[in-house]
User: What shape does this take?
Amino acid sequence: MIDIQAIRQQFPILQQNENGHPLVYLDSAATAQKPVCVIDAITRYYREQNANVHRGVYGLSERATELYEGARETLRAFINAASTREIVFVRGATEAINLVAHSLGRLLQPGDEIIISEMEHHSNIVPWQMLRDEKGIVLKVLPMNDQGELMLEALDGLLTERTRLVSVVHMSNALGTINPVAEIVTKAHAAGAKVLLDGAQAVPHMPVDVQALGCDFYVLSGHKMYGPTGIGVLYAKEALLEQMPPWQGGGDMIYSVTFEQTEYNVLPYKFEAGTPHIAGAIGLAEAARWMMAVGREAIFDHESTLLAYATERLRTIEGLRIIGTASKKGGVISFIVEGAHPHDMATLMDQDGVAVRASHHCAMPVMQHFNLPATVRASLGVYNTQRDIDRLIASVQEAKEMLL
Assistant: This one.
């Protein structure tokens, strides 16, 4: 069981008012708030430990390097990677996907195939379209149904001997759907394809074990799991990283350089060109330790209870339609109110101190599937309470009355 009040006290931003009302933050799918331990870890690094890593023989640099590499080990344990050589620090899930697209993409041939799904975030669509246009690969789309669930039976027909990669979201940011990714991995591997899972939304809400899932790549963003912005992780199986060429060139990704040739560094540094986001990695590791201390199963159970309560309450509002009704969901609820534009709803709700997102959520094909320009999205974090949901319901009803 989670002591929710003790949790909330660890988030300074939740103690403030917004437009004269106590803040109700329901936009964690966009970015989660940060506990004070993460804020303090970043501040402590800049106050007491700031130096560049891997390059200095003086004590301060050695301590900074120890913290940075310690963060890598923390993230390895957090997702149960086999080795720290499989943990590449990047700016976030978007950069991680782009890294794979650019690096693995150099090994692909025209006519090779990549499968994505209809519910992907733009970050898992656009890089593959760019690769399609540059290399002549074939991009296929796994459809979803009107409940917001992938039509897994269609995957068998999409997989061929030319399929090189299946890249799908673990949990949808726009719908909350938790996809059957272990089954997708099994099907893809049987066809000889690799699998990339976009875990930006899944990691904040549930335990993730990359070895148990069997995926070849897994990506995550720190700022969605209570850590800092501008930091994330690309997990990839070591054998794949050994085969893949570097994406960017520069310092730290080299072993030796002459004007004739360059010898690249060992893993994972081959993919970490330049001075890394040291403070970000330290803050991300602190966020991971914080989540493990709270208990990721406990986080999932708490948010599932709130999700069920919010779904039940929202369904009592006349004219409100929930978009995304999959049987297995995480803490995201998207909805529309008939006759009211989502942007107007969210603007009015902000006057009540209720922060929700109104947008296409960087998932325009999802909106096109449902023939909508946007939805209102309330997304949960571990710090949310039943009182927050009650405030959400009251604010939706008030905004609806003002608009209709």
